[in-house]
């Protein structure tokens, strides 16, 4: 019988050679344990699909089958199949070794490098690519072909030519020359910010120390052709443009969550004296809720300096407000540095907090769907697709509406309005609220609102063109739409008008759109009269804290085309500034005892208004009021009440200073502080761990959000250039 055997030692390199096979015959045990034939035969190896040799051996068992002898047979077969030694005496037995050819200069054949000052190059190149084809198919060359588009025209053609000097290095007399390190360092200093602005690493093959040489090593200037064409003045102007840091130039395009956070942090880096970014938490999918703050003393509350906040993108598909707040952050930084007196006065006397996106998860869904609708080639069906896409992404990743997720304190106030001495301020959060579905985004914003003494706030939405104010929930028994003013109705109308009147078109009757047209007056409307809802953020601000918040609807198109962003910024720029300046209307001051110590928790009341403000640390308070005459009082448990008449002229644009000194009542009994104790019971069942755990689980997932330019490279089919990712 014959045994066929394949063995890995027979390599495909010996396909055309022969394998020496020794035919072995086993004699009878007891006579000759093993008799090997002296004859040698040569059997040509047949190459299999896996590149191994196929060997045949003759096996003739007699009477006794011995496993040990079988093993010996296999070892003999394996050993005889080793690669043959080279015998020069046998013709054709030895394959002559190929001598490695020395690289030589060759023509530059890459189109994006055709304008270099030289015409010959050499492979392997400085990046290790062995051939022109390998270079042309690499991510490095692909980057050079799209870098102008990625960087918005900045640093071109410097980056491309610098990359070409590495991928197709200059060749002279069959020697590859390295480009000069000094040129690389100069370009990097001017252009690194352009890469940072799009969240891209500086390319590894432009490492000035690794791929470039000093002048003493005989380097060459890869930009010499470019320098010869440029006038000195033109080059200086380009240099100034390239040196511009990220976050300084507004780009009227939609920004991803990664781009948005990058712009905010770049703005902080450019204006560190007045700007600071901080996180208030994470969304359900682990995305950061990033805030940027502006103040002449960022990170610290200053006595008698009001705190203002702007929040946008609460509904993920309502996106214009998100973009406006990004632009506002860039604008405040840039104008402050340029010495704009109005901006400097605003920032130096106000602490401004900007949260561009409260619902980044919803935005991701809405943006991807909107992009799909825009890519559709069906003009007849595009409008329908656009309408369908307008509602996708509204809710958060739990499919909950964040503007219905806050505690419904308005119903509590309505139920108590016939009780003597009922309050409409600092209403505690009922315990039952914590057993419902409280989103991480809502939880983070509530903690934020309670931790900072905000005075004024606006939340930006889309779908109408109007400013609405509390109450949002109707007092109608069946919650039907009905005018439901809060105690500070006059103040809220004044604040809403401050935004609407400063807006270019909002207060005009012919500019109205949406369902508010039947109820609004000069661009303002009572929320419950227009559309009654419970659990809104603006009602929570008013009833739970000292903060007065309005809701700004920026237009009927929730996701307007990018070409309308510039117009949207121009229409709202003045209104954004005027509303923040309104935080300085009314009065402010300190409530003290006779020894000059501030009294925390004092009640600031206004005659005819059933809503009090509570003093904070050091007895400080802010009370927004309309122009006119007001009777204001201050009281605190264990102290006598003090009253003052205040006159606020229309022409005064800053808050009047009104301090109170309260006299201690001798032997005063401790007052019932059960209301404040209930107010301080925030998250009594420690739901915080559950909310943060939900966000942390998603943030730990290997769902790394890629920047917008990533698709340029993954669609090419080659290896993904992870070396370009900053957070890989």
TrEMBL record:
Disulfide bonds listed in the record: 184-208
Q: Which residues form the Peptidase M14 domain?
A: 253-583
> Where does it sit, as one GO cellular component term?
extracellular space
Q: Which SUPFAM superfamilies match?
A: Carboxypeptidase regulatory domain-like, Frizzled cysteine-rich domain, Zn-dependent exopeptidases
The listed locations are: Secreted
Cofactor(s) demanded: Zn(2+)
This entry's Gene Ontology molecular function terms read: metallocarboxypeptidase activity; zinc ion binding
GO BP annotations of the record are:
peptide metabolic process; protein processing
Q: Domain of life of the organism in this record?
A: Eukaryota
The molecule here is called Carboxypeptidase Z
User: To which species is this protein native?
Assistant: Takifugu rubripes (Japanese pufferfish)
